[in-house]
Amino acid sequence: MSQIQHKLPSLDVVKDIDLEYLSQLITGLRRCSTKAGSYEGKCPFCHSSNSRSLKDAHNLPAFIYPHPNGEGFGFKCCSCKGHYVTTFKLLVALNADSQQYALDRWNAGRFCGRNFNCPIPLVIKDQMEIERKARALEHRKKYEQQRQLNKTLASLRDGSISPIDR
Ligand SMILES: [Zn+2]
Fold first, then answer.
1. CA nearest 134: which of 123, 126, 36?
2. Angle, helix 2-25 to helix 98-109, in steps of 10 degrees
3. Which of 6, 26, 102, 129 has its CA at a distance of 20 to 30 angstroms from the CA of residue 136?
4. What pLDDT is stored for residue 48 in this prediction?
5. pTM of the predicted model, to two decimals?
6. Is residue 19 exposed (0-12), middle (13-18) or buried (19+ Cβ within 10 Å)?
7. Per-residue pLDDT tens for 73-91?
8. Contact indicator for 82, 60 with CB cutoff of 8 Å
9. How close is the Cα of 67 to the center of ligand 1, in Å?
10. Per-residue pLDDT, 159
């Protein structure tokens, strides 16, 4: 229970980041009057394309809705039926800077990777890989030192090397 209560305010940060990116991609973004917590605006897909007939027939707005687990927003367009369950996926589809978005989420509180709906940014992944390799190397070095020491101790016990005067 306390964990959930602790998690709620931090996930609001993701919503803030999402809105920052979405408001740049969806022009005229405004609060949706019929769906609480949702926003609507012009679809970045069909509005800018030549789907004039769709626009004329319905002129329905695209909307973003709160992700069910409280983690940012999903996107849906009523006209072209474009549907992306996360902001990250929408950014990828729009060829926007999804990596910068992921990095913003990471820097805000590591809201990426397992348990989150946004992958770890590639720069961080690379950094983690370098650190992992360095740790493995360090581990290997310590292992070799210990192995060498064990060998020396074993031979001392065998009496094959006598460190004391002869
Ligand atoms: Zn659309």
1. 126
2. 150
3. 102
4. 44
5. 0.75
6. middle
7. 999 998 888 999 999 999 9
8. no
9. 19
10. 72
